[in-house]
Amino acid sequence: KADHVFEPNNLEASIGDTVVFEFYPLNHSVVRADYRYPCIPYEDTGADRRGFFSGFLPISRIGNDMPQWNITINDTAPIFYYCSAPGSCINYGMVGAINPNSSAQVSEQQNLARAANYMLQPGEPFPAEASSSMSSLATSTPTAPPVVSSTPTSSPTPTPAPTSSPALFKGAIAGIAIG
């Protein structure tokens, strides 16, 4: 697997589909972001917003049962996400999208990520320089947030036990490799 990428970095999903993120070495995460705010947790970009965070899943080696983390799609609006491992978003542009469209594209999000001056972990405070950079990014009106439920399918350990979930029967399953 490639280093510091979501593979694929965009996919189409329908309501009821489960998107499975599969983790590869060394240590990555999945954090929801808003379009045009690529390396900032979604909940920090506006009032009453609820994001998601997989937590960090450190992996020491590749095996048969890599840890996975799932979200169930409840809305077909674009959902953007990034890896919050140090440097992944701002140095490598490690971002992705579910249901991107012509007005909300992964390539634009990736360019903005690489141009960002900082990235945040969920719960981390904004740096002092954030007020000017946040206002410069706010060039579009955000849409109503889609509803996303998240369910980890393994514990954050290097050798997780295989698990299954009844949510897998609701819709199709799409996989994204993280590494």
TrEMBL record:
Composition-biased stretches (Low complexity): 127-154
SUPFAM superfamilies (UniProt xref): Cupredoxins
Region (Disordered): 127-167
InterPro entries (UniProt xref): Cupredoxin (IPR008972), Ser-rich/MCO-related (IPR052953)
Top-rank taxon: Eukaryota
Family annotation (PANTHER family): EXTRACELLULAR SERINE-RICH PROTEIN, SERINE-RICH PROTEIN, PUTATIVE-RELATED-RELATED
Record protein name field: Cupredoxin
Organismal lineage: Eukaryota, Fungi, Dikarya, Ascomycota, Pezizomycotina
